[in-house]
Design goal:
Number of strands: 8
Strand order of the largest sheet: 4-1-8-5-7-6
Shape: globular
Order of helices and strands: HEHEEHHEHEHEHEHE
Largest sheet: 6 strands, mixed
Number of helices: 8
């Protein structure tokens, strides 16, 4: 927790592309560093090789091995085929590998990290926060939390947003309940972390969304 607080207080941009956003997905196994981090822009999105598993291209969400309850949320949102960023990011994220990825807004980047996070949390003991998503603005945090709640609708997993400009008491309650996923902006998160109830002792997954900002 002390390391997380120190990083939040001294955070620096990790990417300087004005056309693509970036997320880091930090898991607990097999760290991987990929310096290429090519954004999916223009024709590159259509020509980049797709990940293949056992002879077929991972285009359908059912091919990723997601739980049926999670697939119901995917279906409700109208998702049919995985986008390039989803095809490339979901398999290593499901395997618990560290991941660095760039993609344009509207490319499906949020689902690319939310789906494997939800999949990895299914079946875990409840009552402690195991995933933290850091967003640069309250608008992005609110959108990400809403998206995660929609995908998690049938799983029983809980999501809470933590950002400034709104009362802190409901956010404190979310910390005390130990919601499964917290989506937060750094400033308001630091405010809560001054209090003993904001514990991340059980944290397993850290996502830095829009890390270039």
């Amino acid at each position: 927790m002390c390391m997380l607080r120190a990083w939040l207080q001294n955070r620096r941009p990790a990417c300087h592309s004005s056309d693509a956003s970036l997320f880091e997905l930090r898991g607990s196994e097999h760290p991987v560093t990929d310096p290429r981090c090519r954004p999916f822009l223009g024709s590159d999105a259509a020509t980049r090789p797709s990940r293949r598993t056992k002879g077929f291209v991972l285009t359908s969400f059912s091919n990723f091995g997601f739980d049926a309850q999670l697939l119901r949320g995917v279906t409700d949102l109208g998702f049919t085929e995985a986008t390039p960023i989803q095809r490339d990011a979901i398999p290593p994220a499901l395997a618990g590998r560290d991941l660095l990825a760039c993609a344009m807004t509207g490319s499906g980047k949020t689902a690319a990290f939310v789906l494997p996070v939800l999949a990895r949390l299914l079946g875990k003991p409840r009552g402690t926060t195991r995933a933290l998503v850091l967003s640069p603005t309250r608008e992005i945090a609110a959108q990400t939390a809403e998206h995660a709640e929609s995908l998690a609708r049938y799983t029983g997993l809980t999501v809470a947003s933590v950002y400034g400009g709104v009362p802190a008491r409901p956010q404190e309650s979310a910390f005390r309940r130990g919601v499964d996923i917290i989506v937060a902006t750094p400033g308001r998160l630091l405010d809560h972390m001054k209090m003993p109830y904001a514990s991340f002792a059980g944290l397993e997954i850290l996502v830095l969304d829009e890390a270039d900002r």
